[in-house]
Amino acid sequence: RRLCILKGIYPHEPKHKKKVNKGSTAPRTFYLLKDIKFLLHEPIVNKFREYKVFVRKLRKAYGKSEWNTVDRLKDNKPSYKLDHIVKERYPTFTDALRDLDDALSMCFLFSTFPRTGKCHVQTIQLCRRLSVEFLNYVIASRSLRKVFLSIKGIYYQAEVLGQPVTWITPYAFAHDHPTDVDYRVMATFTEFYTTLLGFVNFRLYHSLNLLYPPKIDGQADVELKPAEGMEYAMDSESYLEKLSALSASLARVVAPTHEDEVEMDEFPVEGETAEQMDVRKKEQEAVENHKKLFEGLRFFLNREVPREPLAFVIRCFGGQVSWDKSLCIGATYDVSDPSITHQIVDRPRVEKQIVGRYYLQPQWVFDSVNAKMCVPVADYFPGVLLPPHLSPFVTEQEGDYIPPEKLKLLAMQRGENPGEMRLREEESEEEEEEDEEDDNEKEEEEEEDESEKEEEMKLKKMEEQKTQSNKALPVKVTAGKVRLEDKQRLEQEQQSEEKRLAIMMMKKREKYLYKKIMFGKKRKVREANKLAAKRKAHDTAVKEEKKKSK
Amino acid sequence: MGRRSRGPPRRAQPFQGAESEEVTDSEEESVYSGLEESGSDSSEEEEEEEDEGSDGSSPPPTRTPRKSKTLEDESALEGNEALLAQNEYEEDSSDEEDIRNTVGNIPMEWYQDFPHIGYNLDGKKIYKPIRNKDELDMFLEKMENPDYWRTIQDKMTGADIKLTDEQVELVQRLQRGQFGDVHFNPYEPAVDFFTHEVMIHPVTNRPADKRSFIPSLIEKEKVSKLVHAIKMGWIKPRKPKDDTPTYYDLWAHEDPNSILGRHKMHVPAPKMKLPGHEESYNPPPEYLLSEEEKLAWEQQEPAERKLNFVPQQYRCLRAVPAYPRFIHERFERCLDLYLCPRQRKMRVNVDPEDLIPKLPKPRDLQPFPTTQALIYRGHTSLVRCLSISPTGQWLVSGSDDGTVRFWEVCTARCMKTLPVGGVVKSVAWNPNPTICLVAICVNQSVLLVNPCLGDKLLYGATDHLLESYEAPEEERIQPVQWVTANVEEHSKGIRLLIQHSKALKQVTWHGKGDYLASVVTDNSNMQVLIHQTSKRWSQNPFRKSKGLVQCVLFHPIRPYFFVATQRYVRVYNLLKQELTKKLMANCKWVSSMAIHPGGDNIICGSYDSKLAWFDLDLSTRPYQLLRHHKKALRSVAFHKHYPLFASGSDDGTVIVCHGMVYNDLLQNPLLVPVKVLKGHVQTLDLGVLDVIFHPTQPWVFSSGADGTVRLYT
């Protein structure tokens, strides 16, 4: 089993289940014979056997309390390496990147495990190290694209060398370890994943001309030294922690030449029109802008917000971040620093407010990242009811339900609505004037209503289109203008009938397929309609409540 | 006093030779034992010892009163002297008697409850001294006896012993941590025999052993063993620590084409599904589950759930708890990775519109009937059968109400009603335009009726033709009886009756209008009969029954005869009197059959709602099976001139299809459904019972279970 995990062997579904299973249809798992033979030739099998013998010998020696033998055996503990398996499973680097999702998620999970029980401390430490290294790489390369706070954990998506890599980290709480989970299986996976991630990290660091194992940039190091010299006696211990503080940039092998953005040489690809080029250029620009989202902003994290994810995200987009010195090492500036522009707060209200900075809830950071722009801060003041946090991973296709917030966001991305700038200006004064805030809210509400109405209209239209295109359904006639529509309707009817007749002529198999597809489409529409209806009901309920309160 | 004089030598004895003297004096033993066991003895003694202990620790304050007390009580001491002496003698005597306890070194508490305290050398019990002191006595003694503090109880004998001054002093010295012997000097000057400094003389003058000059044999043996082991390679030198870096550029020389044999079939693991809006910690309100949905979610099996979590909303990030099933999910992912069979699934990514076959537009295939034009009402029960005159002017319909009605097509007027006194199973108008004759199946007979409609010349000629029949000389044996209608019947229009032995099912004319075939519901070889009207002569073409015959047909041009049984259609050549072909209809129960006017194509309707198109030139299997109807097909019909065919079904619809047959043999017939005609109401689960085309116009008639006949134009 361990071998299968390490070598990535998985069962296959036979083409003729009955034939393979000697006539019975009982569910069984089938491995390819070739795969099993392939496993037999693996050199690591011998290593495993050696290890087994070693364990047996050791146990015997312990039983007889022959400590010399124990020492000798421990000295000669057989070890094995998984390098060749990694290379074999991922012949190219891109292959490895493609499969990095699970490796990262697993490493992040293991790095949050307690140091006792469940698995070896070394594994946990290694996982922690590797994951921190990877985070540092993402910061250095600014390749983070999307973040999503879900109820399960925090999803990140980075684009590493053109490959989207998604991983999830749990919230920083102690796990209640379930009993029905086989930790040995997980540990075996982790063993492989750590090896893989180590090599990937190495390669990634080198691709950025960074030192591996990572070293913190000289200047920053000097700055940090005096502060934490007292608390941290062991240099080697503090190293990882400093690294995990994610605050300092990493040392480069080659000193970074001063931000010379190498202009992309434009090789006109044949068969590509100028328009396409333009589109591509624009896209690239957008990505560059996204990377510099928080450039020039200075953040301060209050102690109640999750430090690591926020620091990571902010640093990924070029922002500077600091936190309370007692919280973690690596704090670069203090709360009272006047140059702080945003303070991330997760309390119902802040007692002492310093003028000249925004006090925001952490969701602002994540929403801004996902929106690829700094979203208006008004919705995110402490104590304010937050707007819904949407998943950036959903790409709405035609006919899907799109929540109104998303529509608003999309509209904002397309072109800033004129009111926004005004709003922003007002927000700085808002701390004193609450009335204004209310006004703003009202405005926003109105906007929302409008957008909702629009959206409803759109939805309706879409539905209509759906029904029209869905000729299997009888066409509904809207009231009024019957005369005018008659011709159209007739035509439609004729068309629908034609289609129906054509459907009749379909072959059996195709008909089945067609019906299935249509069923799926209908279900989708149904679900979207359901969501829309729910939203509408909710909105009306909220409005009524507001009216009552007024 | 004597004791005092005797004391010192006795004291000196144990200290100097305690280890050599095996048999100790009982008194001394008692002293030591008393001292030693002071910590764990009876409460009374303990108290005293504690007193003493405290004395030892802080001598000055307590000692002085004690001492003064002793001084004061000196006289009392002297008074007690006698008693003491007595005691002493007692002890002495006991010493002499040698009542030594033989119990050994055991906790004396074991004897607490016994009257004796052990056994002497003779095995006799040593009894405890009679002690009848109660608490009060004890207290009094404590108060009065000045030597109480130095009185202890001998554990072994149970007797009270008063310590002498020397003994007390010894105790005190020991408590102070000094040596018991007064004369022992612990600080004698050290003589450094084995000093670290190298002396010129040895400490001992013993000469060195010989073995210190010669090599050790045992060592040699051991070394040679090791050498041998090394030589043989049994012992390996310790491996140097591997100090190569754990991570290096693994993909330094990557070859994009290096795909192992195994990886050809490799299916990379699918990525995990990305989260949607509903997984957010603060989702839009519509994604939250309502109460019913939540309940439904809980009742579902975990494997069936669409979401493996309940969407929840938290006001702020601070309130978000840890997800309890996080490890579970990772573990399940692990299991999926190594235990789930992977399979490449071809996801059909087609536009459903593309699946719809490109057919010529029905508009281009006109003319065909599109709308319901006329309804012929009059029948009171289901109209089973229809037939139209070859001119297309008259329509005849037979119904379950026992009548046959003649209609004028254009006006929907019922021209004539002919009660026949039975369910009309089938009607057939003679296709010969010069003869005006209708064959009607009622019960067991075929009625040949002259409807007397249209051109008077024509139907007069028909009557004439029928009357001109002369019976042949010799009577031939016929399977049926030909009966000429009587006067009453004649006035109705009935001209001839062909009486069968069993109930009839269907009647059909040959194209020329002379022959007609009838089908009897029978299982014998007499099912199909062919009659010749002009000669009033019938014959049975088949020697053997090949199954239940559903319907029969004449080929319009050639001398072929089609017989449809439940599953097959047999084609007989009437001239050669042989079976030409056997068509397999691929359906369960053929209900009806029609032949293309060209004669090369047949359609068969069946009760399992299929319509099979046979191309006689191609094969014996259907060229195409059309499943247009939702219910059983009752009848099918071809148009005489237009490339149209229609099928009527129990679902109340008539589907008109364009069925183009090309003269070019290479081109397959083109079948396009062009119109679904609705109008008939379903009654008794029956819809359309018969369909027939107008002989010249692209019109279709249908008769239904609702008692109407409809015309679509």
Automatic annotation (TrEMBL), chain A:
Transmembrane segments: none
SMART domains the UniProt entry points to: BRCT
Domain BRCT residue range list: 289-382
Location(s), subcellular: Nucleus, Nucleolus
Compositional bias per record (Basic and acidic residues), positions renumbered to this chain: 455-466, 482-497, 538-550
Keywords: Nucleus, Ribosome biogenesis, rRNA processing
Cellular component aspect of the GO annotation: PeBoW complex
Region (Disordered): 414-497, 529-550
PROSITE patterns, sorted: BRCT
GO BP: any one term: maturation of LSU-rRNA from tricistronic rRNA transcript (SSU-rRNA, 5.8S rRNA, LSU-rRNA)
Comp. bias (Acidic residues): 426-454
Main location: nucleus
Subunit organization: Component of the PeBoW complex, composed of BOP1, PES1 and WDR12. The complex is held together by BOP1, which interacts with PES1 via its N-terminal domain and with WDR12 via a high-affinity interaction between the seven-bladed beta-propeller domains of the 2 proteins. The PeBoW complex associates with the 66S pre-ribosome. The PeBoW complex also associates with DDX27, PES1 interacts directly with DDX27. Interacts with IRS1 and UBTF. May interact with MAP1B.
Protein name: Pescadillo
Source organism of the structure: Cuculus canorus (Common cuckoo)
Lineage: Eukaryota, Metazoa, Chordata, Craniata, Vertebrata
